[in-house]
Queue: 4 jobs
Job 1
Amino acid sequence: MNPNYLDFEQPIADLEVKIEELQLVGTDNEINIVAEIENLREKSTRLTEKIYANLSSWDIVKVARHPLRPYTLDYIPRIFTDFDELHGDRHFGDDRAIVGGLARLGERTVMVIGQEKGRAVKDKVLRNFGMPKPEGYRKALRLMELAERFKVPVVTLIDTPGAYPGIDSEERGISESIAQNLAVMSRLATPIVCIVIGEGSSGGALGIGVGDHLAMLQYATYFVISPEGCANIIWKSTEHASDAAEAMGVTSSVLQELGIVDATIPEPLGGAHRDVDLMAERIRAHITAQLDALEQLPLEDVLTKRYQRLMSYGN
Amino acid sequence: MSWINKILPSGVRSQESEKRSNVPEGLWKKCVKCDAVLYRPDVDRNDDVCPKCDHHMRIGARRRLAIFLDQDTGEEILADIEPVDRLKFRDKKRYRDRLSAAQKSTGEKDALVAMRGELRGLPIVCVAFEFNFHGGSMGYAVGEKFTRAAHLALEQRAPLVCFAASGGARMQEALISLMQMAKTSAVLERMKLQGVPYISVMTDPIYGGVSASLALLGDVNIAEPDARAGFAGPNIIEQTIRQKLPKGFQRSEFLLEHGAIDMIVHRTQMRDTIAGLLSKLTHQPLRAATPEAPPDEDTTDAEGEPEEVLEGESESESEDRAEDQRREERKDKLEENASVDD
């Protein structure tokens, strides 16, 4: 099995192997190999389209967690320019699972804050696999309040398997740190745009996820408990994760229907990792359009609308 | 089952066992912590705290509100809010059926009960979680009721007191439940900005989404003794870090030590403590505590520390009962003293 492809993508992987082989053969053979490769490429595209048109909720969770899926630090240099990373919560430490700083989005200054899972093994450990501790949420809060003081809009990129469930996390008040962010973000006097780029897991995601606009990438996922966790509680077995994913409605289409998510940003064929530049460009365009619209309104109206929207959840 | 039960005809046997199980249900209660068999009226008088080992037993939302608010002042509000199954969630059973079962067994529409009432004469809004309803989990109905109760508190500038007991966000309402965290936190931030006090009392247990929102956002955070509260459940933490958790982890005492809460308050002291805090925060006087029974010529020293009042233990049950009564009276005297000081 090719680790760069998910289980349901294996037929595509097989075709890609064939194409590669043909390309190698191509140099010393005269048969119409170019046409054959072209043919196979087209077949692969059609196959990908077909597979991706029928993804189950659980398949989408897998794409959202794909090992090659672009993370916050893949997007920041592609979406923004002139990024100055800012570190630390000023109380305890600097949590590398949350990255934040000032950057430019076109002409405008923004505060960008995102969870980072880390790519290579060493990096994953440094980033705690994208599981923030209290100091991460407190750093995010500090940066948001900084943005508020200087009238800079906030952009958050959500991608976490959850806030870190550990002794130190509990000792330093992980619950309080998330709760505080929810409270302050509900009234932070600057526009906030939130994008779920990968995995939005529960309170750990929501801790940087309250704002004026919430968008999800097409194959991102957002849930109150991981499908495995839900399956474990209800069915007493993680094997029912796909049932749990289906029942909870963890994809952008369901969440948009529920009125929780405002927009879905389409991904390149086969997922964001197949064309990171294209994906980044679409996110950039989406954020820019949202901030343009939000900045047209008096700030007071933005805040009133944000509060009303929070109050309407579930109605 | 003893040999004699085995040879008895089944009809006789079931009658026997019914009779046996009926007795403790009525008059006697066993403490889950120290296993002591307790005389039920003693337990009731002691606000469901074990008179032997001081264990704070779990109590329902209505009982909680009844022992907390001034007698006969509690008036239920927002009783019409019902849960909504927006996702048509079903696992092995339909969520709708699970809801009906929970409603039938608890008599509540969902896991939160809200009341308007008085605390030592101070008008307050008070909400309490019903843990027996889906583990006190927060879905739309809980979030909505909490939020509307808080808005009512804001309108009337009356303090809000919340007794939370919850396993967290309700899975069956998925992201709608998660968003209730944001919703309740937002209204509490409004209360904070407008200077209307919010007291959060954590009672055993509080986890997940309720912990990471309304339970830890109090102007004053209080916990009952030995209550468990945390973000992630101990099992999940143990699985993640692959080591045993230290003793007392995520208990009230742990929370106090790590600065998450302001104080641990014994259930029998809850009314007076919160009344005192709210009186100080709102600059309003309290009504003198009215003793539940007319005081007799008991000469017990009323100056004693509240902890001392509660820790006495005696051997026989009748002695215990007498002791309890003396405690009650001492408590009343303490309340009187406190009100004189105010």
Job 2
Amino acid sequence: MNHQPFDDSPSVPNSSDADRCLLYLCGDLLGEPLRDFEEQLVVDPQLQNELTQQAAVLAHLGETPISWQTPCDVPIEPLATSAESFARQWSMPPWAWGCVGVAATVWLAAWLFWQTPTSPLPVTQEETMDTPRLAVAWLEARDLVSRSSDEELPDGFAIDSNASPESNPSPWEAFAGSSATAPPDWMVAALSAMETTEQASTETADG
Amino acid sequence: MSSSKSSPEPTDRLPEADWLFEESGDQACPGLAASEVDRLYAEVGPGLRAFLRSLLGSEADAADCLQECFAALVQRGGQCKPAARKAWLYTIGRNQAAWLIRRRQAGQRALQTASHNRRMSNDNHDAASAILKNERQAQVQAAVRRLSPEQQLVVKLRIDDDFTFREIALQLQIPLGTALSRMRAALKCLAEELNETQDMP
């Protein structure tokens, strides 16, 4: 006999006649398997016999009020949606949720700590050696720029006042896209030296 | 019931059909709503008619039997749980077909005489069928209690709670085939207890 899978279930690909009778009598056989079963039923006395035997017992069960014993008294919840099933599958006691919360907070704090740069980018040994020279050069260049306007500047320091803002980006724009958010060491050293010099000159003038 | 099929009238019933329903009994039998009868006729009618035709070999006899089945459903279908109503209809149909076959074999005259005698003792018949029904229900309850807890649970979910087998499998977290085999094993045990294994005549 060529048994078709009942309904759309892949889990019982070749159900027996008894299974198909049971599904048919309970109304669980649908679609093409149902038509196939009914076609086979009218020509197969064995199948008819199986069907009538099961039908008789099911009819008795249907007519009999039964007081079910434990464990049948265990309340059966209505079938949950997949989301509810997922939530129930992951249900935990409150203390466990507390532990998870603490762990998540610690992890987030650690992640933020490592993501936020607290120090300049790693500086190579070569850059460390060049720091004083760069600081001095920057201060000298600043002195030149801060001189009076009637003084003639070297060509290299000429400022094109007609240039558009786009051609002279601000320092912040120049830094934009760079991972460095702190000033380089040479600038820090130069600014410190400049502040010290200005402070000393102020004290001299006051004294 | 569908428009193509007129509602069965009490006068349409075969005169000798009453005793066929003795297992169901006749007292305090709740009927069914018309919508439920319509739904069952649409769902079960065509298949049951083909089944009866294959048993009886006659389209006319099959139509008569089918009408008897649904007449019984209208009158007494409410006493059967919804999950078992299709099986209940097939059982009524099978009994009706068996009676028709016996009538052919025995001859019309003898059965008419028997029918007359049955009508004369109709009151006694009703009382006896009620007793038989109670006895049969006690047998079923005792047989169900002897099933394993797993089998009882599947039977309860399918017959009393009207879960489909797929829903039962999901609910109990077992394969569908396991749910089916538990139900099948339970029916086999019950059939043996209730002596329901005899073949069709």
Job 3
Amino acid sequence: MRERLLSGFDPFVLPFMIGMCFVLLYCLVAFVRLMGQLSRKERRRFFRSLFIPKNIARNVRDIFCDCLLHVKLWKRNPRLGYMHSSIAFGWFMIILLGHIETFLFVPHRAGLFYYPIFFRYFMVMEGTELKGSLLFFLMDFFLAVILSGIALAVYKRIHRAFFGMRRTTRLSLIDLIGLYSLWAIFPLRWIAEGFTANVAGGSFMTIPINWLLRSFMSNPENITAAWWAYSIALGTFMCVLPYSRYMHIPAEMILIPMRNAGLKVRAARRGFALVQIKSCPGCGVCIDACPMGLAGKKNSMDASAYLARQIRRNNQKNYRDIADKCLMCGKCKAVCQVQFDSISVRRLIREAVPYKLAHDYSYLSSYVESGAVSAENPVEVLYYAGCMSAQTPVIPRSVQRLLDTANISYKLMDPDGSICCGRPLILAGRSSQARELIRSNTRIIHSSGCKILIVSCPICYRMFREEYKLKGVQVLHYTEYFDMLIKEGRLAVRQGEERIAYHDPCELGRGCGIYNAPRRALSAAGSLVPVPKEKVESICCGGSLGSLTLSYQERSRIAVGSLKNLTANGPDLVVTACPLCLKTLADASDSTPVKDFAQVLCEHT
Amino acid sequence: MIITDFGYCLAPSNAVKVDKTTDWRFEKLCALESDVLKCIGCGSCTAVCSAGHFSQMNLRQCILSLSRGQWEKSVRSLSRCMLCGKCLMVCPRGINTRHLILSICRIYCPGEGGSNA
Ligand code: SF4
Ligand code: SF4
Ligand code: SF4
Ligand code: SF4
């Protein structure tokens, strides 16, 4: 192969070059600003991790699997996975092969950005050589892969159920411009390369196009027109990229090393959070996953995809509204391909809301000093029912009966009224207030001299695990504790006939990763029936204290939807292990009884 | 409003003072959390309140006072709330009590004076 144009330049490359330089400049500035937003420690940690071999390997693997192959989406739905990865991976391969071609045939042009992209325009083929035709074949092959992906993407706009999606992200104008220019790039490239295929070579895709085009368009002017169109499509795409969801392409390259360096979200719209927000491509997986969608069509506009968008747009009113609504169930993060930590972002947004009335917990000290739990006759086990369980007396009653049956000597931490664990405050973005409750509860727990703290509320449980530093005290959820007692043979449970559907409370399941202990214990009492969406995919009951603004009606609709999922396989009984889920689901159910975990065990002893 | 004198009249209410209830704060509160208008004053929230166990926290009374425009004394009690959500679980009207409390804390500030701004 040799060059066709000695100058190695044609004005049509200008739109592409303008777009390319703009994107590079934008990314450079954004990167510098981002580094400025990180704390010194974070920065050091980030740069250091870039030189640790294990981290480098992880980064490369993650970039390959997440950004190019979209493994997570493949697992979710193969068609969706193919659509995304064919475009991403195919494009990557075309760029890579373009560079290889340039290096092989015209190494002195390798410094020009546009050369690998418009390679076929500048080259002319002399005879056939093997490596040339292999590259031509690969180029055409990946072009075909991308085109198939784009055909699927177009089809997805019409029929998303084909991709296992009920709802997709509603696009803004700039996203649409980006989308249409992206769709246009590859067909235009096909035509442009088709025009030059007889001179510069081609393969199974471009040569037939060449025959077709030459049969009715013999004017060589058409060639440049086609290449102009291709370059303009590329240029448009790159110019809108920083302002559209396609910013996720460069952002993910930073996100992955940052995540592997172990950075955490510390500010709602700066630093690591900003990278996560920019990395959201608006794939829309979280929209279907979000239980708020069950409350109504307009509630699906509160999903994480839209939170990211409103923050990108800097629309304070909208992102505050969205942040306040969320149930903090954590499902969107669990399904998200970029692991957008929307929960922390939402919490931090809530934290920034100003309050005029300051809190006053002066009563705490007298409560702690009054000796809420007597220090005399210290016992090993302390049971904290918590505020919520106080509203569902069946839970503390059953727990106590089970403890008695198993001959455990225990004490109650809150026999008559307790102070809250503090998690509701943290979820509402008032963590400094929560600290006061944490301090008081910690003192009470330590003064009791217990070794094991049992809690029946998953909200408290997560709080004790994550925010309290209870040295020498093991915190257990009652499902874990009773599972242990059954396993050790200290608690005998009679096998029954009931078919049980178990509901994973958000804070216990996704929050603390406890899925199996309650299932194991329950299967000693009845037979578990599978639930279509369970474990990580379980649907929030709607009662969550995480949401600040969801109305009662919206919550009820979520509860009905969640219950529908639980009763899909016709169980005799729905069982859960959270007082709030119990109350919410029981209110929503009119046929299947809803019971608590301890209550069911109690009935079988 | 002109009320024709029929020779008898309604006893003046000592609960509802129209000019006071149209306090801008209460209007703002209704805009933030319209549930406040749904309260029937049943007192369930107060009965179960965790903070009420230790202090003078009384949500029912506070809502009532706010709707009457008498907020200086009552809002201060809300500073004891731990947002635990017990009241949310029991309210027969399905009022989003936690958001109501947060909204009140955002708008009202004791010591700011009670006049209409
Ligand atoms: S937040 Fe995650 S799941 Fe939701 S649209 Fe963005 S990338 Fe997709
Ligand atoms: S945490 Fe749950 S409720 Fe909130 S946006 Fe995510 S999926 Fe929806
Ligand atoms: S949320 Fe506040 S007002 Fe309601 S029960 Fe708890 S402490 Fe009382
Ligand atoms: S429980 Fe509900 S309706 Fe009853 S007083 Fe409290 S807020 Fe009002």
Job 4
Amino acid sequence: MVDYSLLPRHDVLCIDMKSFYASCECVLRGLDPLNAYLVVIGDRNYRGSIVLASSPKMKKEYGIKTGNRLFEVPRDPKIHVVEARMSLYLEQSLKIARLLTEFAPPETIHVYSVDEAWICVDGMERRLGNRWQIAQKIKDSIWERFGLPACIGIGPNKFLAKVILDIEAKETGIAECRYEDVPVKLWPQPVQKIWGIGRRMKVRLNQMGILTAGHLAHYPLEQLKKRFGVMGEQLYWHAWGVDLSPVTGYHPTKGQKGFGHGMTLLRDYKNREEIKTVILELCEEVARRAREAKMAGRTVSLGLRFSDWEKGGGFFHSFTRREPTNITMEIYESCLFLFNKYYQGETVRQIHLSLTNLVPERAIQLSLFEDRLKKHRLGFVVDEVRAKHGSASLLRAPSYTAGGIMPERAQKIGGHKAL
Amino acid sequence: MKIVATKENLLEGINTVQKAVSHKNTIPILEGIYLKAKNNFLYFAATDLEIGIECKVQVNVIEEGEIVLPARHFSDLVRKLPNTKITITYLSDILGVSIEYNEAQVHLKGWPGEEFPKIPDLEGNFQLELHTSLLKNMIKQTLFATSADENRPIFTGVLFEINDNQLSMVSTDTHRLVLRIGKINNNTERNLNLIIPGKTLSEVHRIMKDDEDSIKITGNNNQIAFQTQDTRIISRIIEGKFPDYNQVIPTSYKTLIKVKTKDFQETIERANLFSSEKDGTSIIKLSVKDSLLAVLSQSEMGKVEEKLPIYFEGDNIEIAFNAKYLLEVLKVIDSEDINMTLSGPLNPGIIRPGNHNNYTYLLLPLRTV
């Protein structure tokens, strides 16, 4: 048993924008987000294009939700099929984040994604009322100001706020889960409903006979630790509703551990040269962000996921350099080392790479056989040109070959059309 | 096979060959140590097919024979044995051995000895003999500057070059370069130029005993072998062309300083205390002015600034180096003072021992931003 009286009790709200992209589109088109039939898709010209969001009515009446394909959307004149305009949604998302700062100071807000945020409202009672009243006020102001529907989960920590949002508030609008409610509200839920348990973890847990959060909470902790390491411990405590992560003071740039970039490819890549082209392009992105932050990193990691008809799978490996770097070609060199060592001709669908082990760039170690200073300066010059004339204004030659993704990626945000 | 040995006998053999045991799991038998009992010697051998080490230890052989035992289990066991008479007997029914000591008996399974790849006798097309003390010193002074970067294999090795009666060993990781020259006598061989893997040299360094006078080296274009009285190491050679080191060592300079090795080393060690990096890298700024060398280092934790008296000629200069690269060389230089020549803040600095010219350490500076 967990003694809840020893655990901190905060007032944490987890705010989720209902069908965010779809709702934004409805508002921009003068439709009512709650009554319109609208789906947002990636690319109208491609029948397999994925549904990014659908309005509540679409979900309820047609069962079309995120992850469906364009060809599954019925052809009905009342259904609006629109292409994503990511930059507009981002703008809207920023405005909402700004609105939250009217309720509580910035350090209590953790913007988790484009449509989700946590806010800790400890000590706001005198000014704004209790946590339920505050949640209602936030929900109302988002509706009044932007015409967008929101749902809010309330909990004593970030985890429970998020979980109750997912399992209850998305239906009811606002819901709360206190520690006392964990056995009633959390335990009957199947494990995959718990935030942090994905498809693969679900299978592994189910194989151990763990089907619900309640099963997990009553599984011997030792066994979970043995099986899953520290993650096992986290799973166990989460199942009891315990989450000791700090509720305030989150800032994305603080303690930046690394720069990573990933890309799901638009088609299967099999040709080594084409895969290397994409790796080079991602190296450039990673290096650019490191340079922008005036950081350099020593560890380069490369991850490839194989296409489904390879039966999935992939690899993730790291290489630690002797000297930190933010020079594109040096990062690329390390990637190629990993690539040549581990890649065996599989069909690739997803590429991810990152630069970690960061240090502030205070000095550059010169080298005997190459002009590192020149290469280093070159990176900054290229960055400047791109900042001024657009990210696709100056590209490496391989980017213009068939494998290149940059010319197209430059038009996109989060992998979808920017406008 | 049946032998009687002491724990010390066995440990000596195991420790000598252990580094050559393969960890790659591709050929299971290579994870073993080969043992052969013959003529009152127990022969040990291990190889990962890149390097092979074999040695012999005098024991009491009752029955001759051979076996391969799993290296990890065998060595862990021997390390934990009491100091007493140990009998190892071949057991054909489990294809392994019985290890007996006091009233105890351990059974350990192995592989048939004849399946272990023989470490070949090298068909050498050159042969020479070096003083162990010289080779030991030369390895110590060059090996540390090799690179660990498997991307560029030639830099993971040390260049081994013989011109007439002079042996040069050179290593570099592209940030610094070491050249150590040694005199050899009665070299009857033609000139040589090959790159020996760093790992091999570190093993060679380990097997050379202080009471032995010389070590025999034989080799051809693919392999090289080192032989002491009881031990033999055979290794592949790294293919490729080592960069022309003579070209990168500058012959002129603008600033010359002479400083006490020990003082300089201790100063840098203090300055490096606040280094934020775990591996001892940090930025050390040197500033030479009016017969004083100022050493400065700064991090979030604090800063250290020290001034050392030096002999100095030429221009004033400010230059930054990686502390680790300075310390590594100061630790292996065995002269009381060093000469350091500099030619501007972005050009390589050179460190040489104060009393002789057989050692050159070239170090590229850091450019601070």
